[in-house]
Amino acid sequence: MAIQNPPVSQTKSFSTVFLIEMWERFGFYGMQVLMVTYMVKKLGFADVDANLVWGAASALIYATPAIGGWIGDKFLGSRRTMLSGAVVLMVGYALLWIPTNNAYALYLALGVIILGNGLFKPNAGNLVRKIYEGDEVKIDSAFTIYYMAVNVGSTISMLLTPWIRDYVGEHYGDALGWHTAFGVCSIGLILGLINYYFMRRTLAHIGSVPDYEPPKAKNILGVVVGGFVIIAVSAYILQNQSVAQLCVYAAGIVILGIFVHLIRSSEPGERAGLIAALVLTIQTIFFFIFYQQMSTSLNLFAQRNVDLSFGIFGFEIFRWIPEQFQSLNAIWIVILSPILVWIYNSLGKHGKDFPVAAKFALGFAAVAAGFFMYGLGATTAVNGAISSWYMVWGYGLYSLGEVLVSGLGLAMIARYVPARMGGFMMGAYYVASGVAQYMGSVVANYAAIPDNITDPLQSLPIYTSLFNKLGFVGVGCTVIAVAMLPLMRKLSANHALAALPPIPPVHNEDL
Known about the structure:
The chain crosses the membrane at residues 22-40, 52-72, 81-98, 104-120, 141-164, 176-198, 219-237, 243-263, 272-291, 325-344, 356-376, 396-417, 429-449, 469-488. By secondary structure, this protein is mostly helical. The chain is built from 18 helices and 2 strands.
């Protein structure tokens, strides 16, 4: 570990990263919860176009951290790059704050946000890892708390920004309502940066090699020029869906091809682990297709076909704004994560913990049940609106699946991939997840509602048809995952016999 002079506790250093991460997630999810609805309701996008634009943005948001991590390690330093990312994100949300209905302004703002996310995310996680470097007992607990920051920040913002949008819109005009809500996301980053300024001493001894050297002018210039290129390319891709499709599907083919090449050219002892990683990565891609429905089809479903009142025995307790239903995902994860950790630890103490592949199968079963829940709600719908409680339980089942599948994704890479291939495989996993997000938006368009349909009784069967089909796909994924268990057990056994050095611990919060 780095020498600390004067001594600074790990807790104080961790708190600095924890707080700026919390505000960063506050800004990101506060923007995400409104984005598709903003494009549909304010900019006049058709459902199809809004879903695909956000799908392309999601794919780029997942892909750019691979570049940001490289910049942090080789050129600017993890600490400087994280801070730069936070500033860029603040600017991106501030661009959305500007009251304009110009679609090109949206593409530019999203391009800036894509760049900022790429710079911020991998380096914030890397700093947490460096704070607890060599202390494997504390690092898992630290990342658990870190993950809580993600979900606390996202929950608050997903509940707050739709309310701000409605409140300001009602009193000062609809246009100002939307842009003020986005502005709150920028204010969140400003608060995070102010907090970082006062606590910066606690991270002075933490970082990658370039953090301890004066920044080189050529490196700064290269990053700035590269940043503008990323923004311009991202904005171009977002407004040209044919280009977006070409890029996304080409990336998927390239990743699959490289995976096959690595398996064929690997040492015999490495091959079993790589095949196991490929199988589980493909299953993870299917999961992210389901995941993308939250901000697309499920979000628009809540706008049109959900009773916003929460009641018990005929008495209304409270009402929600349609976008706020997306916060159920984060709320359920906060509830379910410690329960699952306790179960894993209890089973592990008795040597009965089940393998990652079995957890994937259970996760897909939970996701399938979650989507069937929305179809079940349609059977008791009143005037085309299902009870809000079906959304609660549907999101709950889905979130259980997320914790079982997505939460184990990077752990799977660390377990099965040889250390010498770790960096590449981690980047490939992120890009594959981004490809899946775009594919999820394509799937969401099977429930795109034509402009001439405004009656909830007409839109309800369109949505529930998609959700039921996704439920059956989830069942299919479960069956395949169960059928693969014997092969996965064999591959895991062969991998264990090879006794390859593992990759250092990784956590899905790095996303």
